[in-house]
Predict the structure.
Amino acid sequence: MNAMAGALILGLETSCDETAAAVVEAGRRILSNVVLSQVPVHQLYGGVVPELASREHLRGVVPIVRQALERAGRPLAQMDAVAVTCGPGLAGALLVGIAYAKALAGAAGIPLLGVNHLEGHLHAVLLEERSQGRPDPSFPAVALVVSGGHTQLMRLERHGEHDFRYRLLGHTRDDAAGEAYDKVAKLLGLGYPGGPLLDQLSIHGNPEAVRFGRIHLKGNPLDFSFSGLKTAVLRHVQAAGLESGIATRRRAVAELGRAPSLHEWGLLCEPATLDLIASFQAAVVADLAQRTFAAVEQLTAAGDPPASLFLTGGVAANRALRRRLQAEADRRGLGLFAPALALCTDNAAMIAAAAYPRFCRGERAGAALAASPQLALDAAP
Ligand code: KG4
Ligand code: ZN
């Protein structure tokens, strides 16, 4: 057995609006995975407010780490390393996690590792398989990382037991897919975050009612762009006269004084709005699927066919997207791997898991570890 087989890593994640800590053993066994969501704080503004995010991380990080250690039933003294997200993300938010991770590593006299948030999302896929006792997916893989902050297509391969290589194939030029969901929800007078709500409401509308057409881009066909679709939704709202319905909905929510239930949201949406939501979701899903399989085809044509497909990030929770990718992957005989919801959205278990191969390779971050808001995946943290 590998000498590192039982290594316990305490992971911290504070890159956006979730304060998270987790203990993961050997990159495969989740001992605890605690997430404190800031949704109620940012809900009022319909999006993440960076200054508020930093303040909430400051408040939350100490109790969340304590909870993660308690639930794991292991004190800090038993940890073998502390891993923390060092980018990409909000500068102030990242700093809180990094500063506390340094303090913990220093106090316990254990190594500190800096982890790229996107590498975390990719390792969430492996962690899901490993924690369920299943074998690792085959490599190379094409990964669609799709969240509120990112929409990227990547190729990943494995080098030996503890080394992974990543290549960016395409990324969004403007809004991330989750951001597009959140902005469209805000535009329609619906709650935040918009993704889960639009996903659920879309079942009640006709996805063919509004024809948005394909999203065309010059240059890299594996890049994404969702800002045009958001504008098209706005134009449709104006053309179809949906503004008064939106104003009525906003008033009704203000009078209610709390977030409506899913059933109540449904009652607050007229059929034309439900059709628009379903059509928007169909356009996003079609675009994500089309570019994902274009990536598969591009690599295959270059003599480098992927052996599996990864889907991860908050938007990977979308049922229509999962169904669509699954059907197409099945048709091509490709295995599709997507984590369960708790590992799709931001969490620290994925950070601890991504740190494990780095820990085994002897990688250590120094006291100079800094926040890198724009950190690229192929750059060393
Ligand atoms: O990964 P995540 O927790 O945080 C970021 O790294 O951004 O993803 C949150 C994003 C939000 O934009 C949210 O609206 C979106 O994921 N999301 C969804 C669904 N569930 C969450 N989007 C579409 N359909 C869903 N079911
Ligand atoms: Zn994320």
About this structure: The pocket of zinc ion (ligand 2) is lined by residues 117, 121, 147, 149, 313, 346 (CB under 6 Å).
